[in-house]
Known about the structure:
The complex is a heterodimer of chains A (201) and B (423).
Chain A: H1 2-10, H2 14-21, H3 25-36, H4 39-56, H5 66-87, H6 93-100, H7 111-129, H8 133-144, H9 149-155, H10 160-180
Helix pairs in contact in A: 1-2, 3-4, 3-5, 4-5, 8-10, 9-10
Chain B: H1 3-12, H2 20-32, H3 34-52, H4 64-74, H5 84-111, H6 123-129, H7 143-146, H8 152-170, H9 172-185, E1 197-207, H10 210-220, E2 225-233, E3 239-248, H11 252-259, E4 264-274, H12 276-302, H13 306-338, E5 339-348, H14 351-355, H15 362-422
Parallel strand pairs in B: 1-5
Antiparallel strand pairs in B: 1-4, 2-3, 3-5
Helix pairs in contact in B: 1-2, 2-3, 5-15, 9-12, 12-13
Amino acid sequence: MTEDLLRRARAGDSRSFEMLVTTHEQTVWRVCWQMLGNSEDAADALQQTMLRAWQGIGSFRGEATLGTWLYRIAVSVCLDALRRRKARPQVSMDQLREEDGFDPPSREAGPEQALEQKEDREAVREALNSLSDEQRVPLTLFAVDQRPYEEIAELLSLPVGTVKSRISRGRMQLAKILRENGNYPGAAASKRVKGGPIHEL
Amino acid sequence: MNCEAYQALLTSCLDREPTPEEAAQLSAHEAECPECRALRESLELLPDRLAGLREDVPPMPADLHQRWTLMLEEKPMENKQTRKPARRRQLAGILAAAAALVFIVGGTLMTRDDLPSRTKTNAASKESAGVTVSNASSYGNGVYASSARGYEAPAEAMVMDDYDTAAFYEEDMEAEEAAAFDADDDGGAAEERETKLIRNVSLTIVSRDFDNSLESLKNLAEGGWISYSSVTAGSNGLRTAWLTLRIPAEAVDAYLSGTEALGRITRMEETTRDVTDSYYDTASRLESQKALLARYQQLVAQAEDMSDLLVLENAMSEAQRQIDSYTASLRSTDSKVRYATVEISLREEKEQERLQTTELSLGERIGAAISVGWTALADFLEDALVFLVAALPFLILAGAVIACAVIVQRRRKARKAKEEKAE
């Protein structure tokens, strides 16, 4: 059935294309949001991803799975977006997130524990966002999205060694920032020093 | 081992298993440095904490699915687009090239007559020619339009004719009444009517023997007169004469047949207007005004006081004015009826031009076409170069303005960036 849909999508039937890619929509959304950090940019990137996929469906050879293919396109779209963001400095990622006004409800445990979890995630996210894109992107793909080194290397068109070292350095940097902010799992959020992220020890 | 070395080693071990030796070094430092021990703990917890961020992603906006599916329908896949900025830049490039092309071609074509041309016309020859014809190729049907300056006088006369007719027609209703009124006084007027025809002939003659032909055209107009004559020289050196002749109506046909011997007639138009009705309407109005005037004159003789006299005086001068105008109109119509208007443009042609009408082989035509096209291109490029040189001051000015704008824009951007940084 997938073959059939693919054939029709290649022939220009947008409905078939929609049926094919909708199963991967959430994955694309996640990676876009993880990489760009706010809903507005993520939505743009998702649209752009779908458009590129649609226009390039003819070149999809079926060597990778459709999911992997879409994921690659999404990462490439997000990298473009980050490059543009760098080219014209705007508001920082943290600001964007605050404007986003997102407050994810926790699905597990009691309210107190949920609050603690939420606080911790925010602290980690904040620390992660204070890293450079160079470290943050591979680290996000590796540790948040759980992608193997080889795939990240391919996605970012970098040698595997470079990807590994960037991830390691990113992890170390992140651990230092979190230590410095006095934040570790279980520590009360009030201990955290509010203010700008600390880059150096 | 100091903290720095420890952290470097630990970092390098993050993506692989440490060797037993390295493991020993690390734990040795940890034993004596609680700070680094805590860092390592933090690092070990990190993967789980980062993985927890997966839960952190907000749900997809509700309308996003609809948004992108709609977008696909708007953008068919054939339309393979590269990245947007690149496309825009490409588009801008194309637009700029098109604008430059329009500027050069348009500018050259519009100014080629004003800018110095290859053939220089000096003032003296201009005067002798009377009028310079701006474009040598506009013979034939375009002659009147292109030579408006040279033809002003006869054109005006023609307009006058039209006014007269219009006036005649406008007064048709009144004229009918007047005629009916007149019929009582003078019943036999209708029988004396004679058909009044105004004839206009316009023709173009092409001649190789320009001077003799022109002389003959003038001489042939015996019994008539020349009301307008001018000779202009085209940029190719060939002359054209414009003649307006008034020829006795009965002699027009003889005159026209006489012109046939002078060259090829390439164009001939003839109009004949029947003005009989309006002529006799005017004539009868004239009569009635004259009768009115005579009646007033009788009344003046009988007038008793000053106010009657004044009223009569006014009425009489109005009647006299009408009589004058009708008389003039009839006289002008009489003249036009008696003398037909013949407009002639006599065009000089060269010997070769005549030869060109003989049949050419396809090869010759192609050869000629190539040379024509090539010459035209060469001429155009030459004109374009002259134009660009002429436009140079403007281009420099425009360039300076654009450069200023760009500099200002950049500075503003830089200042903005600085301000943002400062914030």
